[in-house]
Design brief:
Elements (H helix, E strand, L loop, with lengths): L4 H14 L3 E5 L5 E6 L15 H4 L13 E8 L5 E8 L5 E7 L1 H12 L4 H16 L10 E3 L6 E12 L1 H7 L2 H21 L3 E6 L2 E6 L8 H25 L6 E17 L4 E6 L1 H12 L4 E5 H5 L9 E7 L2 E9 L13
Parallel strand pairs: 10-12
Antiparallel strand pairs: 1-2, 1-5, 3-4, 4-5, 6-10, 7-9, 7-10, 8-9, 10-11, 12-14, 13-14
């Protein structure tokens, strides 16, 4: 099917600009008869019409003359240490065409995504170190029961954070377990790292949701600000991930957030090999309910949290919500893709 010239022109411009197109034509004697595109992108500058192609382009050695209609070598590493997709093809008139298309952008995208996919043992290791900071070696891991930390103040004033990926449950129902868990790990990595960096303690990973507690681990910051800053950094990381996936026409997911401050009872569930933190209290329930009522890309916080945010209050607008048939005062922040990032790095 012949494409309209407008479409052909658009594709040509797209390839030339985003894939750094470079091409040449070789006659039946192996001599370069035409050059085009930007060869300097590939570290190739001393090449001219009239020269023997294989002398100037060692990667063509052994490939010419073509023994078939075309050859495609994806992500070929050139002698200049630049990678490119190499296409070689010929026509009936014995002219051979060589095309290079840069894969630098794809490599950068893969590197960024790979940075967000760490081994789960890294997360367990970080979490174990944080538990060690709090508990020392006093917990008896052989007893499967909840131990209240009386020595650490059994009633602790903390901040509870719930983050949920909207739409992921529906996606998991139509995708294989391997695909589901692979993608979930990518998104959870983007959410969990900022929580850990802001001294948040992971309490649970529930399917496509995360619960974290701020105000337990040693820190000089205000827990409410640390929780919000962790969320804003997670938003930033998820947006970067979504942008990469959109460029490859892949599904993306957004989040909803609930944050509440309150007094909770804190305990430890001991297993044979692992320790699990347990948190009980109205603050946990309220944060979970706020998250459930939040829209995609919305952060809902309770009144107590709002009053601790000082200058960060300007991000939020007053809301009245109904929870358990009662009206409560809450505050909403609906994130856009182009947020002012000034709050990400402030204390």
């Amino acid at each position: 099917m012949a494409l309209p010239q407008t479409v052909v022109n658009y594709i040509s411009q797209l390839v030339e600009q985003e894939r750094s197109l470079a091409y040449l034509r070789i006659d039946d004697q192996g001599i370069i008869s035409l050059l085009g595109g930007d060869w300097s992108i590939y570290g190739i500058t001393e090449i001219e019409v009239g020269e023997l192609a294989e002398d100037k382009l060692p990667f063509l050695s052994g490939l010419l003359p073509l023994s078939e209609e075309k050859i495609i070598l994806p992500q070929l590493k050139l002698d200049t240490d630049v990678s490119a997709d190499l296409h070689i093809f010929s026509f009936a008139n014995k002219e051979t065409w060589v095309i290079l298309l840069s894969v630098a952008e794809q490599e950068r995208n893969q590197q960024i995504i790979q940075q967000k996919i760490n081994d789960l043992s890294l997360l367990r290791d970080k979490q174990a170190r944080m538990l060690g900071m709090m508990l020392g070696s006093e917990a008896d891991s052989s007893i499967q029961e909840l131990k209240i930390f009386n020595q650490l103040d059994p009633q602790r004033e903390v901040v509870i954070l719930f983050i949920d990926l909207r739409g992921f449950t529906s996606y998991s129902k139509i995708s294989s377990p391997e695909e589901t868990f692979s993608l979930l790990n990518i998104y959870l990595r983007a959410i969990i790292d900022p929580i850990i960096d802001e001294a948040g303690l992971l309490d649970k990973i529930i399917g496509d949701g995360v619960m974290a507690i701020f105000g337990i681990l040693p820190s000089t910051g205000i827990p409410q600000k640390m929780a919000l800053r962790a969320v804003l950094r997670a938003i930033n990381a998820v947006d970067e991930l979504n942008n990469l996936r959109q460029s490859d026409n892949l599904l993306i997911f957004d989040f909803a957030v609930g944050i509440a401050s309150g007094t909770i009872s804190l305990g430890l569930l001991n297993g044979r090999e692992q320790k699990f933190l347990g948190a009980l209290g109205d603050g946990v329930k309220l944060a979970a309910q706020l998250e459930k009522q939040a829209q995609a890309r919305e952060i809902l916080i309770d009144e107590t949290t709002f009053h601790k945010l000082a200058e960060m209050q300007e991000l939020f607008s007053l809301q009245t919500l109904t929870i358990d048939n009662q009206s409560i005062t809450a505050f909403s922040y609906l994130s856009s893709l182009y947020e002012d990032k000034r709050w990400l790095w402030q204390g």
